[in-house]
Amino acid sequence: MNTHNLPAPCWLDNPDHTAWRLAEAQRLLAFAKASKLPDGFGGLDAKGWLAPGARADTLNTARMTHCFALAHLQGQPGYLAYVEHGVAALRGAMQDATYGGWFAHPGGDTDSGKAAYLHAFVALAASSAVLAGAVDAPALLEDAVQILEAHFWSEEEGALSESFSRGWQLPEPYRGANSNMHAVEAFLALADVTGNHLWLQRALRIAERIIHGHAAANGHRVIEHFDAFWQPLPHYNQERPADPFRPYGTTPGHALEWARLLLHLEASLERAGLGAPGWLVDDASALFDAACLHAWSVDGAEGFVYTLDWADRPMVRARLHWVHAEACAAAAALLQRTGEARYEQWYGRCWGFIANYFIDLVAGSWHHELDAHNQPAGTLWPGKPDLYHAYQALLLPGLPLAPSLASSLAANVTR
Fold it and tell me: Quick check: keyword Isomerase in the entry (predicted)?
């Protein structure tokens, strides 16, 4: 893999910016600790409180467990207990003792089914918890890998199936780019923790199908929704354009997230001695460029809009915090990989927007949603339940593109 010297001066090498990133990461961690419930972690409101009767859920629990493991690996004291709390929850009532896999909520016998998106985060949490040395994390990782291989991974398709009924009998006739994107992230971590390069090969097959196949042929706009035969469904959820997980049209934030993951995949393949196709960096750059061209400040206000229609017109004009966090992380990765000054400019621009509009120095954490006029809102993302996107964006610029995030911290690897 070719890497390039960073332009000078560069925020990534600026000690004051590094100190700011790490201090902001600690501020987010301190806020997120309040999400702890007896049976896992739940979502916090805009002031950082758990609502009366708040319920733990598996997605928050997996993401918090992963993030608290990163904090422990950073050397932040006190977080290992939170990691072990998360592992215990994921091995407790959140896990289906009858059929295997994970419910969306503890003891969820009536849950609609088993989702690939959720299980990818359980695998990510388990891999990070193993590196953190959490009790029972190896058993959680073993269970997560077994479920992924037994039910979700399709060798024929080179991707994950989307979801099943509780007993695994009824597959959903749908394939999603979002769940498979997070599978790439989880697979990179699994490759590092298990030493099994098969996970890298699987991640490459996913990326080749969804990005180098479909997105590249669509102007590097990520197609999100497919039928069971991987035929695009361009009108999917047209009547629900603001769906938080399966919105209609294109989601520029996912193009930014994919851009970063392609570079991590390229670096991981090279590190493993497997060789990486040249299209990984080319597609990463094209995804980033398309997202910035079509989604940044396209409606008269700063920031990335949430979704676009197929003519690149803004559909849902809300600005979401995770999109901008991923923009910073992608710009940093592209800057590391190419050394091109334009990524330095985007990196500074996106952090400036986050500092001006998302960071909440009064109530804590970040606003998760802004309206079309960049005022705090809560229509799509009520409260402040998410630590994962912002926290990772604050850590990644100081780390190499490979190994994966937790493994870099465990090995005390810096750029």
Answer: yes
CATH of domain 11-410: 1.50.10.10
Whether the CB-CB separation of 224 and 177 falls below 8 Å is answered with yes
- pLDDT below 50 — which residues of the chain? none
* pLDDT at res. 57: 96
Torsion of CA 223, 225, 229, 232, to 10 degrees: -50
**Residue found by looking up tokens 């938080």 in the block:** 244
Q: How high is the pLDDT of residue 110?
A: 66
Q: Report pLDDT digits (tens) over 78-124.
A: 999 999 999 999 999 999 999 999 999 998 876 669 999 999 999 99
Residue-range domain boundaries for the chain: 11-410
Residue 251: CB partners within 8 Å, gap ≥ 6? 178, 222, 224, 306, 307
**Is residue 208 a contact partner of residue 283, using CB atoms and an 8 Å limit?**
no
Active-site residue list: 254, 389
Cα distance between residue 158 and residue 209, in whole Å: 8
Answer whether 0.85 is exceeded by the pTM: yes
Per the CB < 8 A criterion, the answer to whether 16 and 353 are in contact is no
**217 vs 223: CA distance, rounded Å:** 10
pLDDT at position 413, please?
Answer: 83
pLDDT of residue 1: 59
Chain position carrying tokens 């037994």? 150
d(CA 149, CA 152): 6
- Return the structure tokens found at 382: 């009520």
Whether the CB-CB separation of 80 and 67 falls below 8 Å is answered with no
* Rounded-to-integer distance, Cα 285 and Cα 210, Å: 16
Cβ density class 339-354: b for 16+ within 10 Å, e for less: beeebbebbebbbebb
Q: Which residues of 226-240 are buried (b: 16+ CB within 10 A; e: fewer)?
A: beeeeebbeebbeee
Q: Are 320 and 387 within 8 A, CB to CB?
A: no
Q: What is the pLDDT of residue 3?
A: 66
* Token code pair at residue 266: 């390229």
